[in-house]
Amino acid sequence: MIENAGEDWQIAVQIFIDYIQVPMIIEGETYQTFFVDTDKSFSKEFCFQIAETLDESVDHKIMAAMTVYSDKHVKDSELEYTTNGYSIALDAVLDIAGNTDQFIMNKLYNYENPRESYKDMWYGVLINTELQDFKRRVPDKEIVAQKNERKDFVYHVGGYDDCTEALVILCMGMEQVDVNQQKYMLFKLEKGKIQDGLVTITMPDEQGSYDLTGWIIKNPFSEEKTEINSVSDTWRFTINVT
Predict the structure, then answer these.
(1) Mean predicted confidence (pLDDT) in 3-27
(2) Residue-wise over 17-46: b if at least 16 C-beta within 10 A, else e?
(3) Are 17 and 52 in contact (CB under 8 A)?
(4) Potential cystine with 23: which of 51, 116, 158, 237 (Cβ 3.0-4.6 Å)?
(5) Partners of 210 in the beta sheet?
């Protein structure tokens, strides 16, 4: 069910299985990302199928994300600064096998090796381009990159008191992108501490403007089937690829 009240905007819907974006089938059509144009009183139910075969002998993790203003760019907004809070994302166990002992969500990658860990009154995930001093500063509304460039960014992740592991997904143009040559980043956290380090993203091979979006998932390997967890997003900004 997609509902909207208050503003006209386009919403991008993305589905992730085991934290990798998968295509979905809606009304006989296949979409990597499904875009919905809504008005001030929009309410409609969409049924979808995952357009990939899943191992049904085990349970999986499923994350659904809805991002507003998916047809616009932060660089063109009237906001003085970029912002987070542009999406709703939920994370849960996809109970297929009916047995918590059969769980496929293995750790595909090693933990990131942060540059440093530090304490501060902050938590979440932030991506910027402060490569000289790694300052945790809200990113500029837009930056410039070259086609196919392997571009370095800085991450700040953590600050939580209630989890020891976190996973970060990033997207450009409302589709998941590889980060450090893998589908997502995995972090081993210390209570209340923030980690910073480098993340490399290969830019698209087509010129254009792409908004960088993303989420941080706490305790991604939790097998608790009764929980549906809300997911926090990172600050969104525009990358102009030339």
Answers:
(1) 86
(2) bbbebbebeeeeeebebbebebeeeeeeee
(3) yes
(4) 51
(5) 239
Q: Which is nearest to 14 in space by CA: 226, 169, 218?
A: 169
Q: Do 2-94 and 116-241 fold alike per CATH?
A: yes
Q: Which CATH architecture has domain 2-94?
A: Sandwich (2.60)
Q: Which two tokens mark 170?
A: 């990033």
Question: Which of 68-77, 84-93, 174-183, 219-228 has the highest average model confidence (pLDDT)?
Answer: 174-183
Type and span of the H or E element at 146? none
DSSP-assigned letters across all residues of 75-118: GGSS-SS-BS--EEEEEEEE-SSS-TT-B-----SPPP--SEEE
Confidence of residue 142 (pLDDT cuts 50, 70, 90): very high
**Strand 142-145 and strand 237-241: pairing?**
parallel
Select from 155, 231, 160 the least CA-distant residue to 190: 160
Structure pTM? 0.92
- The amino acid occupying position 95 is D
Domain residue spans of the chain: 2-94, 116-241
User: Regarding the domain delimited by 116-241, which CATH topology (the fold level of the hierarchy) does it fall under?
Assistant: Immunoglobulin-like (2.60.40)
